Predict the structure.
Amino acid sequence: MEIGFGKGRFLVHATQANPNVNYFGIEIIRKYQLYTATRLVKRKLTNVKVCCADAKLVLSNSIPPNSLSAVNIFFPDPWWKKRHHKRRLFDEGFVKSLAPVLVPGGWINIATDVEEYFQEITALFAEKLPFLKGEPWGEDSPDSLVEGHLTNFEKKFVDQGKPIHHVRYRKPI
Ligand SMILES: C[S@@+](CC[C@H](N)C(=O)[O-])C[C@H]1O[C@@H](n2cnc3c(N)ncnc32)[C@H](O)[C@@H]1O
C-alpha cells in the first residue's frame, strides 16, 4: 500500500516491475488519484487499485488486520507552519493504526526531506510502537518492495542533491 502517492511515479514503476505483487494506493486529492489512475490504465496494469480517501480513515476502518506486506509513505506533507502541524499525517492515532494491518514480517517504509519531521516521526514510533525497531533504508535495500523506484518528489530532491531521510520498520514475525 502506498499512502499519498501524488502523481504516482513510484506506483506506476513498482506495479510494472512486480506483476506478481498487488498494489493499493490511497490519495486524498482527487485530481492526483485520477492522474495516476489514467497512467495505470494506459499501461494496462491490473495488479493495482487506487482510491481517493483520507488514509487515516481507510487504515482505521477498512483494512483487515494482517493483510499488507508493506505500507509506503513517501514525502508526507510537512505543513511547515507550527500552527498547521496538527494537519500532519503522522500523529499518535495514525502511527498506532499501522502495525495491525501489516502481515508478520511486513514493512513500513518512510521517506522525507524534512529533518525536523523525520525526528518527530521516529520519536512517535519509539514512543507508541516500541516493539518495532527502525533502520535506515535506501532504494537498493532488499526485501522492502521499494527497490529502485523513486517517487516524483524523491526524483526531484535527488536531482537537486538534497539530503533525504529514510527509515523503515518491520513487524516482528
Ligand atoms: C508531498 S506529496 C508527496 C507525493 C508522493 N508521495 C511523492 O513522493 O512524490 C504528499 C501527498 O500526500 C497526499 N496526502 C496528504 N494527506 C493524505 C491523507 N490523509 N490520505 C491520503 N493522502 C494524503 C497529498 O495529497 C499529496 O499528494
Observations:
- The CA atoms of residues 24 and 49 lie 5 Å apart.
- Residues 3-6, 26-29, 32, 54-56, 74-77, 89, 151-154 surround S-adenosylmethionine (CB under 6 Å).
- The chain has one domain: 2-170.
- The first strand starts at residue 2 and ends at 3.
